[in-house]
């Protein structure tokens, strides 16, 4: 689909293994509860990936090897998509210095501590933010616009994304093959999810 091949990997797992994702729900308290998300089949083995063969990164796991992968994608100025608490990984990887990004509001201090400027969207808004090769959003309701902007950074010229909040449990690592062109910074609003670039 879209001329893009996505590889789903996870540290310490092999192709064919399954991973369980989680969905964080704010139930009116100061924090969130965790509900089971969608299970995913891994398509490739993490230990076998060759980073130079990938054009973009969508990730969600706190692991030193993932931090190394994140640094690689930022060093090469390739597209990276981070949502919700994923910005904590970018902060830990040291790649937020001088960048602006959104995250779940509880992660604002992590963004600032990592040298980034926090873009304050309402937690469950359908907004994403683009800063160069980085696409970020506060939480799962924004997944349609967030993924649309990531796909645009990959250089895909025409596509349609249906607004599907349940598709948001991206608690996994997805490496995307193909090469993009980057250099923009702008907030993105959820209008016109059917677009032509």
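^ Assign residues to that structure.
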């Amino acid at each position: 689909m879209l001329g893009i091949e996505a590889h789903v990997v996870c540290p310490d797992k092999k192709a064919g293994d399954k991973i369980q994702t989680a969905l964080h729900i704010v139930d009116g308290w100061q924090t969130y509860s965790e509900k089971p998300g969608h299970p995913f089949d891994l398509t490739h083995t993490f230990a076998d990936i060759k980073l130079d063969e990938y054009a973009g990164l969508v990730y969600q796991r706190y692991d030193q090897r993932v931090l190394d992968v994140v640094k690689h994608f930022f060093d090469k100025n390739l597209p990276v998509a981070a949502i919700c608490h994923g910005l904590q990984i970018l902060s830990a990887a040291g790649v937020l210095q001088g960048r602006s990004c959104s995250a779940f509001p509880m992660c604002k201090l992590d963004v600032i501590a990592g040298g980034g400027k926090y873009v304050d969207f309402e937690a469950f808004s359908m907004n994403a933010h683009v800063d160069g090769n980085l696409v970020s959003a506060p939480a799962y309701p924004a997944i349609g616009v967030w993924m649309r902007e990531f796909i645009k950074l990959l250089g895909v010229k025409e596509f349609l994304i249906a607004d599907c909040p349940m598709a948001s449990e991206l608690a996994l690592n997805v490496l995307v093959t193909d090469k993009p062109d980057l250099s923009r910074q702008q907030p993105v609003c959820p209008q016109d999810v059917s677009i032509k670039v």
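Residues 159-197 have pLDDT under 50 and may be disordered.
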